[in-house]
Write a structure and sequence with these properties.
The chain has 162 residues and is mainly alpha-helical. 64% of the residues lie in helices and 9% in strands. Helix 1 runs antiparallel to helix 2.
């Protein structure tokens, strides 16, 4: 990564330029957020910018603006994952072969991983989701009915476009 310049000042000294070679520079923050939005994977995003997970979680705690940007990046990524899963489901219903469901959906994410990420996302979006909600999980029939309704809605939306 290239060095970036930031303005710094001490208690009794004037503002001066300082070269930053490590840490969460504006460029690294942007790259991290882009990677999270594309993959929903914080570990991979920190590896992509060459910094640690501990440092990004510390940054999120101390910088509310960055925390909100991170949240928005995750929401965008989860929306993309959900759309891809529904598109695959529609393709199967239309008789179009989509391959092995264990294959990669986006990057290095399998369908199983995507579903786990979406479950985590729902826990974040619905604060207070915990043990009580886990006891009230939908049955297989309820889940199937919900998925079929969503697929029909997306199919109708797709047909209106054509």
């Amino acid at each position: 990564m290239k060095n970036e310049e930031v303005l710094t000042a001490g208690a009794n000294r004037p503002v001066q330029r300082q070269r930053i070679t490590q840490g969460w520079t504006p460029s690294r923050r942007e790259q991290f957020l882009d990677h999270v939005a594309a993959t929903c994977n914080v570990r991979a995003a920190t590896e992509a910018v060459g910094l640690s997970q501990a440092s990004v979680y510390a940054l999120r705690r101390r910088d509310p603006a960055f925390a909100e940007q991170w949240r928005m990046a995750l929401l965008a990524g989860y929306d993309r994952l959900e759309e891809m899963l529904l598109a695959k489901a529609i393709a199967v219903l239309d008789g179009v072969a989509v391959g092995d469901p264990d294959q990669v959906v986006a990057g290095a994410i399998s369908i199983e991983q995507a579903i786990k990420l979406l479950d985590r996302h729902r826990a974040v979006v619905k604060p207070g989701a915990g043990r009580r909600e886990a006891q009230l999980r939908a049955t297989q029939a309820e889940t199937d009915a919900m998925l079929i309704a969503r697929i029909k809605a997306m199919r109708g939306k797709q047909e209106r476009r054509v």
